[in-house]
Each structure stands twice: as C-alpha cells, then as structure tokens.
Write a structure and sequence with these properties.
424 residues; globular; 11-stranded mixed sheet; binds 2-acetamido-2-deoxy-beta-D-glucopyranose; alpha+beta; 7-stranded antiparallel sheet; 6 helices
Length: 424
C-alpha cells in the first residue's frame, strides 16, 4: 500500500514535470506534434550559420533568396530588389501645425542627443553578406500560443476612429494613446521613438509603441503596415523590448501576423525582426531611440523600411489592395492590452510608465515620438497635422510643435502607469 502510494507520487511528479515542460497546460497528441514540426520547418529555413544571442534567442543567417517571404503565394515569381528606386525628398514644406503646447526647452543639446539602439545578438557574431538574420522560432514559442494556428497572429488591433471600431477595441481590451493624421493621402512616414522596457502584468497582455500606416476602413478590408517596439511575453517568452513589424490586407482576418509572417522581403544582414533591442532608456538617464522611416517607392509601389539608418527591406505592393495605391491615415503612439484581472485595470505600463503631464521636465522621463513627418503625393516629406487620442485616466498624450528644423520637430509625449487612483 505504502509502496504503491510512493509510486503514485513519482508518477504524479513525472506527469507534472512533463506538463510543465510542454509549457502551456497542454498535453499534445501526435498529430499536434506533427503540426508543430511542420510549422517549425516552414518558418525556420536551413541557415548557413547560427548565432547564440545572450538573451536566449538563436539567430539563423538564412540565404536571402530562401527567406520565408517567398513562401507567400503572391510572391512566388518575385525578383528580389536590393534598393528602392526613390527616396522621399527631404525638403520640408511649411505647413501650419495644430499645436497644443509650445516648443520644449528641455531637449538635449545637439552635442548630447539620444543614441540609437542595437540588438543583443550583435555581441556574438554577424550574418555573412547574402544572408539575413532570422530569429529562430522554437517549439516553446508555438506552444505558448492559444492554438498552433494562432501563433504570431493578432486580432483586431488598430486605433479606433469610429463607433464600430471603438466597440471592437473595447471588446479586445486594447487601449491607446496615439497621434493620428487627419484626412489625406500619404506615401510614407518618418519618426523617432525612444525605447523603454515597460512592465507588463499578464502574459496575454502587451505594451508597444509603433507607427501604423493605414489604407481603407475596417469594414472594407483594412490594409496596414506596422512597425515599432513591443514587450509581449506570449509571443517571445520574455519581457525584453523587441523590434516588431506587422501587416494585414484584410482587417486582421486571414492575413496578418507578427514578424515571421511571409510577405516582408528583407534585404539587410544586420537587423533581426523580433530581436531584442538594447539598451533601453532610463528615467533621468540615457535615452535610446528607434528611428523608423517607411515610404512607398514611386516606381514599383513597394513600401520600404529603414531603421536607424539601415535599409531593412520592403513589403511588395502586390500584397495589398488599398496600400497598393496609397495610405489614407498614419498614426504613431502606444497601445496596451488590459485584461482587467480581478476587476482592476492592470498595472501594465505604456511607454516609460510615466504620464507626460505629471512631470515638469518630460524629456528623459516620458516616452516620445519626435520629428514626425509624412510623405506627400509629390514625394516630399511634410509636417503633418496630428490629432491626439487617448484612454482617459490610465494613459495620456501631449502633442507639441517646434521649428521643423530643430531636434524635436512635430513631436509628442505619451504613456502612463496603467492602474492608479484615477484608473482603478
Ligand atoms: C508565376 O509564374 C507562373 C508561370 O509563368 C504563372 O503561371 C503564375 O501565375 C505566376 N504567379 C504569380 C503569383 O504571379
Ligand atoms: C507660446 O509662445 C508664444 C510666443 O513665445 C507665447 O505668446 C504664447 O503665450 C505661448 N503659449 C503657451 C501655451 O505657452
Ligand atoms: C516578466 O514580468 C512578469 C511581471 O513582472 C514576471 O512575473 C515574470 O516573471 C517575468 N518573466 C520573465 C521571463 O522574466
């Protein structure tokens, strides 16, 4: 009797160990295992070299012509381009900007400006020319997803403009602090975000800062191109601040997933999409930035992306419907998911976790996006009119305008702590 009881304990412990090992409360059947292996084989192309990153990632250097983008049915015959045909003209037109505040006097002097960030894996090696660095998808990454099919996907997730969209956003528990361009025709955008490592309370929440390039409306098959930084435990298995990209051509229904989704054609051998960005900014300390520039090539219509001065790659025009022609709205700012655990707003932070207005001196304390510009139909960079929108009480946003030639240009501060006395 006693022996068998001990035996049962041992069996139980082994079962718990196995349960934990699979990660997510799931005991897998062999078809599921086969499905996961199939997905991993699709996502992880045979590398010519692999680099172990200090953050636990494996970065595979994959031959540029074998990247997952070319698995997309629309890109079967695609000939890779290494350079855009055109860059937007850097001339800035004098456009009146709706300002809510005067110029900040507390920015850095030109000699002590913010530094750009790098990626953790750079300390352990480089990808050779002719390859691109890809963060390897591990079995446990897939197991964290609610289903194998949903790995890397996202549901409704863009700043709401009308009542239908607001309803969807509330249902999905998404909250925003964003600056949005008003009606127009846009062929690109540019801006620099400072990087933070916000606290995210629940594993199925996230906190991010990004740009949205939007064509169409939710009910007619929204197209988006998105890029920025995010903290998202469910997707990456840690709390690191990571570079992400995203696109959809049907309002997040069938298309659309983070990072490894086929479709984005990468040309750069230094930047791993999904890789950890390091270091991040410190309150009252050094500020580190991610400068994002995305524009539509006037000749081929592809949307190119440059990050911190590195040409990263492009979204081919053929992936899209509305964005094949132009974007009709451009947003910058922050988004979080609040699961409202135990009837409270969670303590998930946006940006630095500080409200912009609670500080005399915002620079080095709150999250910002500076030098926001958009590309017009003549391929010129322009200063946009920004309209601020935010979730009251939990997060906030303050737009500010300075002379377009200075360090700040059109910029805004945003973020907040989540749960606080005004946001219970
Ligand atoms: C690729 O080329 C083949 C043969 O020319 C053609 O049948 C097919 O439609 C093309 N696919 C795409 C997506 O353009
Ligand atoms: C902004 O600056 C102008 C000129 O320096 C001044 O007249 C105005 O009162 C300021 N506005 C605010 C909101 O501080
Ligand atoms: C991430 O942050 C959460 C919330 O602070 C913490 O509970 C968790 O242990 C962290 N996870 C990792 C992998 O560091």
């Amino acid at each position: 009797m006693k022996l068998s009881f001990h035996f049962m304990i041992v069996v139980y412990v082994l079962m718990v160990a196995r349960y934990c090992y699979t990660g997510n409360n799931k005991l897998l059947t062999s078809p599921q295992n086969a499905q996961i292996q199939k997905l991993l084989n699709e996502l992880n192309k045979p590398p010519v070299k692999s680099i172990n990153s200090p953050d636990g990632d494996i970065i595979d250097c994959v031959p540029i012509h074998q990247q997952p983008a070319f698995d997309h049915p629309l890109l079967k015959n695609h000939t890779i381009k290494m350079r855009p045909n055109h860059y937007p003209n850097p001339k800035v037109d004098e456009i009146k900007v709706s300002s809510t505040m005067n110029a900040s006097k507390d920015g850095p002097s030109s000699s002590s400006s913010s530094s750009s960030t790098t990626q953790s894996w750079h300390s352990n090696g480089k990808c050779p020319r002719g390859t691109i660095p890809i963060r390897r998808t591990k079995r446990e990454d897939v197991l964290r997803a609610s289903s194998i099919q949903s790995y890397g996907k996202k549901t409704f997730s863009f700043p709401p403009l009308n009542s239908i969209e607001s309803e969807l956003a509330i249902n999905e528990q998404h909250e925003y602090a964003i600056a949005s361009t008003s009606d127009g025709q846009f062929y690109g955008t540019k801006g620099a975000l400072n990087l933070w490592n916000p606290h995210v309370q629940e594993s199925n929440e996230f906190s991010l800062a990004q740009t949205w390039i939007i064509g169409g409306t939710y009910d007619t098959g929204l197209n988006t191109i998105e890029a920025g930084w995010q903290v998202y435990r469910d997707l990456y298995g840690d709390n690191n601040t990571r570079l992400f990209i995203y696109w959809t051509s049907d309002a997040y229904q069938k298309t659309g997933c983070y990072n490894l989704c086929s479709g984005f054609v990468q040309t750069n051998n230094k930047i791993a999409i999904g890789g950890t960005l390091t270091p991040t900014s410190q309150i009252d300390g050094s500020q580190y930035e991610l400068a994002i520039f995305i524009w539509k090539d006037g000749k081929d219509g592809d949307w190119w992306m440059d990050i911190n001065g590195e040409l990263v790659g492009y979204w081919p025009s053929s992936l899209f419907s509305y964005l094949r022609v132009k974007a009709t709205r451009i947003d910058w700012g922050g988004e979080i998911v609040n699961r409202g655990t135990n009837g409270h707003h969670t303590t998930t932070q946006m940006g630095s976790g500080k409200f912009p207005q609670k500080w005399q001196q915002w620079y080095r304390r709150a999250s910002y996006v500076r030098k926001v510009e958009t590309v017009d139909s003549s391929n010129y960079l322009r200063i946009p009119v920004l309209n601020a929108y935010h979730e009251p009480h939990c997060y906030d946003i303050m737009t500010r305008v300075t002379n377009e030639d200075d360090y700040w240009g059109t910029h805004f501060y945003f973020g907040g702590p989540g749960r606080n006395k005004d946001c219970p």
